[in-house]
Amino acid sequence: MKNYWLLLLSLSISSTALAGTISKIYKKGRRVLIDQIEEGDGIEKGAKVCVYDDSDKRITCGKIAKTTKSGKAYMRISKKKFKMVKKGMIVRTKDGSSGGGSNTAKNAGSIRIAGFWTGGIMTPYSYQKLAYQVPESQAPSTLWKQEGEISTQLFGLGLSAGFQIGPGMLITGLRYRAADDLAIDSDYSPSDPNIYSSIKESSSSTGIFFDYAYMTMPLGMFLMDLTAGLDVDMSAVSIDAEVIDEKGTQPTTKLSKAESKLTVASLRVGANFDAMFMDMFGMNFGLNLLVPLSETPKYSGEVTDAQATGLDAETQGKDLEKQLAHKKSSVGVEIIIGVVSRL
């Protein structure tokens, strides 16, 4: 009688369809027999179900290994959880259905693995595209001209793995993004148009993130995860500048070689949309919004411009760092397209 009322209470609290109760436990093979509520209205083989104790605490989850025509089902229990499972415990389908319904809803899973392309529509950092500026005096205010802010990286790859923790899922991931190299040629010598400066800029970033999927729900053909977490982005911008004689009468000389590194910590919120076209595999689409909170810069490099004799090497180096303006952005936006598996 106690289990009967517990079944009714569990059904009303969870708003999920009830699969049944455990009637027998088999040590051999670590299996349990599930008696379903209504004969013939049972769960399918391969459906994901979870076992709950008297306080409605989830003990473990797994898949239905076998079903019978009489409305019973067998489930295999992991070795770690087997001793915790008792007769009379409640078994409910994990997705809140009795085994039917959409393929997406049935495959929420307790493990989520994804590989994806990631595009930084707005990266959590930005920097300036630079060109050499011919000094008007031996001690100019700057040797560089800012040609535009760079805050987009559309090519990137990433991996993530999520594991059930409490009512939600903890997702950790890595990503790598790179931008196209930038190259700007500009005049160097006012008296000789054949001598010019050539500047090459390259950038890349590596990120690690921790998300908690606090809500998972079916949305049409998709399974949607709403997430919130922390993002750490480590970017590097390299500059290589030379003075070149187009006629080749003078040797090419190094104007500057520098690297700026920046670590940005951000809060992130987002949504993942998984379309499970197969039993455990599907496509993933995601959108994340990042709010940068802190930055840790590191700069190294040198500038040796013979035309700015009024500026020492340290001043020239600080000038380049200032004009590069490698810093955290006010906001970041990334999109994700990839493949996903829910187990």
Give structural notes:
The protein is mainly beta and 343 residues long. It folds into two domains: 2-101, Elongation Factor Tu (Ef-tu), domain 3 (Beta Barrel), CATH 2.40.30; 111-342, Porin (Beta Barrel), CATH 2.40.160. It has three helices and 18 strands. The chain has helices at 2-14, 103-106, 313-324, and strands spanning 18-26, 31-36, 48-52, 58-67, 72-76, 90-93, 111-122, 125-132, 144-150, 155-165, 168-178, 182-189, 192-219, 222-245, 253-275, 281-303, 327-328, 332-342. A hairpin with a 4-residue loop joins strand 4 and strand 5. Residues 1-17 and 96-107 have low confidence and may be disordered.
List the helices and strands and how they pair.
Blueprint: H1 2-14, E1 18-26, E2 31-36, E3 48-52, E4 58-67, E5 72-76, E6 90-93, H2 103-106, E7 111-122, E8 125-132, E9 144-150, E10 155-165, E11 168-178, E12 182-189, E13 192-219, E14 222-245, E15 253-275, E16 281-303, H3 313-324, E17 327-328, E18 332-342
Antiparallel strand pairs: 1-2, 1-6, 2-5, 3-4, 3-6, 4-5, 7-10, 7-18, 8-9, 8-17, 10-11, 11-13, 12-13, 13-14, 14-15, 15-16, 16-18
